[in-house]
Amino acid sequence: MFKGSNVALITPFKNNELDIDAYIKLIHFQISNGTNGLVPAGTTGESPTLSHNEHQKVIDLCVKESNGKTIVIAGTGSNSTEEAISLTRMQKKQVLMRHWWSHLITINLRKRDYFNTIKR
């Protein structure tokens, strides 16, 4: 299913708004240079700081602009489980869903391991 290079896209902003022109150029640059997959709103896409509308727009633009030329893996992760579920449900059927685990969960697991080690 996955092969080669799958790029987590940055989400460019200009004047505190999504820079759509720069984002579309970035998508086409990646495709024209042989990227096998695009990950909008992934780990480098500033997803925790995007509104639901911005998050959806970033993914929709990527799907539209890639036009079936490459796989799109929608980043639907969030620091909130409810929000991650909501974002995942918002995605359309043609997008491959992938939930990126929150950094917060990783930190909590590390803390648990830390305290368990001390307890022993």
Q: Can I get a quick summary?
A:
Helices cover 46% and strands 15% of the residues.
Model description:
With 120 residues, the protein is of the alpha/beta class. It has one domain: Alpha-Beta Barrel (TIM Barrel), CATH 3.20.20.70. The chain contains four helices and six strands. The strands form two sheets. The protein has a four-stranded parallel sheet with strand order 1-4-5-6, with helices on one face. A two-stranded antiparallel ribbon has the order 2-3. Helix 1 runs parallel beside helix 2.
Write the layout of secondary structure elements.
Layout (H helix, E strand, L loop, with lengths): L5 E3 L4 E2 L2 E2 L1 H13 L4 E3 L12 H15 L4 E5 L5 H10 L5 E3 L4 H17 L1
Parallel strand pairs: 1-4, 4-5, 5-6
Antiparallel strand pairs: 2-3
User: Mean of the pLDDT scores?
Assistant: 76
Quickly count the domains: 1
Flag low-confidence runs.
92-109
What level of helicity do the residues show? 40-55%
Features:
alpha/beta, TIM Barrel, 120 residues, globular
